[in-house]
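User: structure tokens for Guanidinium exporter, please.
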Amino acid sequence: MPWVLLAFAGLLEIVWAVAMKQAAGFTRLWPTMIMGVSMIGSFGLLALAMRDLPLGTAYTIWTGIGAVGAFTVGILFLGEALTPMRMIAAVLIVTGLVVMKLA
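Assistant: Done. Predicted tokens:
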């Protein structure tokens, strides 16, 4: 169960990161509200997952899901560039997540 909580916490991290971008410096109400709610949910689920998972593992997985997820959303929906170096960086993050999970 803690891994499921952690996965949902990571997904909510993607939501709040994208909403933060859409909030344009907190000048748009609804994206700002979505960001706040999803941020609280993400932190709450992370805290619950950390009751059973090691700090380093939980935090690394959570930030990795958020980083790679936000990277992917940026490319697929926000028109951000997919360069070879950015792709290598994302692959390295995912590789690190897999190794962390196996450890």
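User: Anything notable?

Assistant: Residues 2-102 form one domain.
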